[in-house]
Amino acid sequence: MVLENVKEMWTEVPKGNNKKPVNKDRFISKMFLRGDSVILSEFKLLLFEKIVNYTRWLEGLLRNED
């Protein structure tokens, strides 16, 4: 599978005391994924879509109760 215009984000924790974690990101124009990665990515996206749809459904119920 090929993903286009991907923003990869991660956090790096420096070694040593009193060092704060640093958020990093990079832009990838084309990313080629193998089968195991694709399943994980699609699963996360599907789960996110279900949560968003459920939230919108709940908001609609709350509006109708007023």
Automatic annotation (TrEMBL):
Highest taxon above the source species: Eukaryota
Q: Methyltransferase: is it a keyword of this entry? A: no
A Gene Ontology annotation in the biological process aspect, one of them, is: RNA splicing
What InterPro entries does this protein map onto?
LSM_dom_sf (IPR010920), Sm_D2 (IPR027248), Sm_dom_euk/arc (IPR001163)
Q: Which UniProt keywords apply?
A: Cytoplasm, mRNA processing, mRNA splicing, Nucleus, Ribonucleoprotein
Localization (cell): Cytoplasm, Cytosol; Nucleus
Give the protein name, as stated in the record.
Small nuclear ribonucleoprotein Sm D2
Species of the source? Mycena citricolor
